[in-house]
Each structure stands twice: as structure tokens, then as C-alpha cells.
């Protein structure tokens, strides 16, 4: 991307398409294939070649893309970037149908640490993966996305709750089931029949006989957009952390082919990362072992490699400035943020932060730091998990953001572009990744 405007325009398109982790991975795979990356299957033999570009998908929701360097092979160090594909949301329960006073609603479960109040009075759609049986008896899966507003969670009017602006809380069991439609007297809705109709509409060749199960989440239909009087801000759902997935992908697509590079985007970070496709699972380690070729090569690879864990940071909110340490309040559009925590909730150390500062200075990109207030708890990322699972030196960094875990988050229009520039330089950096 030649400038921030082009970068943000394409980022908005990506965010609009990537409504679930499954759709995000499918879109990333499409872009990788268009750039010459070849898909690999985990249950097949791999024949990796210098200069080769590859990607592998697990569970349809996690993806690893990598390139084998022509000048520096994997055992000489892999330049890795990590992010995650999932975001807090409302996921549909297995037996979701609810009918009350002629209204049809769906029971939902809260995925991750979602801010629930912003989900009220939004135009919601539904997307995800569906498992079904074909007419011939075969089991298949397919992605669906209604793409239009099919539901909403109406607020209770202030006239019926006069203390709403003082003390209203949200009960996730009874207050947030989305409303889909009205039903006639005696009429009943079958959610699986609705899904079957949607599958036939989106995949007419599937010969769907019976919907068996699904992983579906609601999302806000309002598209990602550049906003603000001077166009300073990017507003969208799922900035945490599809913004980092996109940023890492754009940097990878500008790889010069010389050093060995890798991008991993894991699912399930928002719920702890412990899954077959999560950062605390075996996926990355398994891929790195196959890239290295043998145990000795793997040991050399991990010792000489580095991971940059990219996940959004908390920008200092002008209305809540006291929630930050006075010397560590990152500003939007003032540069990506190095995240530091002495209790290892972030994995940055002086060596990895030094490397990033050197790369950023060479690119002319400003750098900020975030440390949580000493009297507050600290969040975490895939950084410490990856460092612990793989044993690779790691840096935690992110774009400063407002409204993290809301249905609509806010970032600056310069920061992701600048982070992508530094990650591109990192991927193309010819020297050793460890201090001498």
C-alpha cells in the first residue's frame, strides 16, 4: 500500500467481509493464494523449497502463512508475527428457539469478555459455520452469512426503568436474546430450517438434507468506516484483533523472499487460547517442527527466531484519563504501542523492544509504551502463551484503541499503516534477531 488512505480503504473492505473467524481465514487464504501462496494439508507430506510461499489452515478459523528464505533458511531464524482471528460476540445456543408474546428470539451465549451495553439497538446479522448432511448421506460444512440485518436487541424504554442511566446492568441470560421476527398465532419457528434455507441460497449445489449443528455469531451490520471531522479515526467491529491480522498480512505480502518469515493468526484468544486451533494448542509448534526438519534444526530455529505478537493496546481515553499510568497513556495516531508487564502478562523484554525500536526508527515510525496502572489488573495476549509454548523471544505490540471489546471499536487512521510498515521492514530484515 502506497499510503495510509489506500491501506485503510482496503482494511475496511477486509473487516466488512471478515464477519467471523471462519470468514476472516477464508478471506486471508483468498488473498494469499492470489499472491502465489500454496495451501498445505497437515495430514500430507510437505516438500518445502527455498523461495516457496505456503499456508496451512486448522479448524477453518486459524491460519499460518510462511515463506522459506532464499538467503537465510529457517534454522537461521524465522521472523514471526502473531495475531488472533476471534472477537467477543454473541453466539447462538444449540437449542436457541424462544417464543414469547408472538415474538421469535434466539438464545445466545456471550463469547469472550464482551461489553454488552453497546449491543442494544443495533442492526444485527448472523454468520458462521454450519455442519449438515447431504442428500446422499455425506457430512459437510459450509460458511454462511446473512449479510443483512435480521435481528436486534431492543433496549427497555427509560419510562419503564427510571434509574437506567444510574444503575442499569445487563443480565446475559434474559436481557440480550436477539429479536428476529413476529409469529402468527400457533406458528412455530425452527432455527435449523432457517439455516437450511440460507445454505441452499448461498450454496445451491450442496444438496442439503438436514442441518446438524453450527457455530454462529451475531454481528453489527454497520460497515467499517473512516470517521471524524478530519478523518482521524477508523471505526469498526472486530478491530480487536482483525486489524492486526490484516496488518500482518499486508506486511507478509511485501516480503522480499530472502529471510524466512511466518504469520500466525489463531482462534480462541478471547477465551484463553486453549484449543486445537488456539495459541496454547500445538498448531504453531507443529508447523515450525516441519519447517525445521528435525529436532536439532527446531532447537536452532526457536533460539534464533523472534515473534511479534500484535494485539490492540488501550489508548488513553480523554474522559477517563485516570485509568492510565500518567507516563504511559498512548495517543491515537501517535504510533504503535509496546506493551510491557513485569508479571509476564505481556512477553516483551528489553531485547525484543530494542529490536522493534531500531526497526521503527529506520522506518521513521514513532513508538509509544503502555504499562497498566500498578493498582489495576493487566490483560494478556497470545505473546506470553507463544513464548511459553514455543520458547521463542517475543514482543507484544499493538495499535492504540478506544472501546476495546465493544461491538464497535475505534482506532487511529495512521497507526495500523505505520505498524505494517515496521512489520514489513522486520520481515525483510537481513541481520540476526538476537543481540550480539
Describe the secondary structure blueprint for this structure:
Elements: H1 4-17, H2 21-34, E1 38-40, E2 53-58, E3 62-67, E4 78-84, E5 89-100, E6 103-111, E7 124-134, E8 139-145, H3 164-167, E9 179-182, H4 191-202, E10 208-220, E11 225-227, E12 233-236, H5 239-252, E13 260-266, H6 283-292, H7 295-304, E14 306-310, E15 313-314, E16 337-339, H8 350-363, E17 368-370, H9 382-390, E18 393-398, E19 400-402, E20 409-412, H10 415-427
Parallel strand pairs: 1-2, 4-13, 4-14, 14-18, 15-19, 16-17
Antiparallel strand pairs: 2-3, 3-13, 5-6, 5-10, 6-9, 7-8, 7-10, 11-12, 12-20, 16-18, 19-20
Helix pairs in contact: 5-10, 6-7, 8-10
Keywords: Aminopeptidase, Hydrolase, Metal-binding, Metalloprotease, Protease, Zinc
EC number: 3.4.11.-
GO molecular function: aminopeptidase activity; metallopeptidase activity; zinc ion binding
Largest sheet: 9 strands, mixed
| Overall geometric form | globular
Low-confidence stretches: none
Secondary-structure-derived class: alpha/beta
Q: Count the domains.
A: 2
| Proportion of helical residues | 25-40%
Beta strands, count: 20
CATH topology heading of the largest domain: Aminopeptidase
**Radius of gyration of CA atoms, rounded to a whole number:** 22 Å
Q: What is the average of the pLDDT values?
A: 96
**Shape-level CATH architecture of the largest domain:** 3-Layer(aba) Sandwich
Q: Number of helical segments?
A: 10
CATH class of the largest domain: Alpha Beta
The largest sheet has its strands arranged as: 1-2-3-13-4-14-18-16-17
| β-strand amount | 25-35%
Termini separation comes to 34 Å
CATH superfamily of the largest domain: Zn peptidases
| Helix and strand sequence | HHEEEEEEEEHEHEEEHEHHEEEHEHEEEH
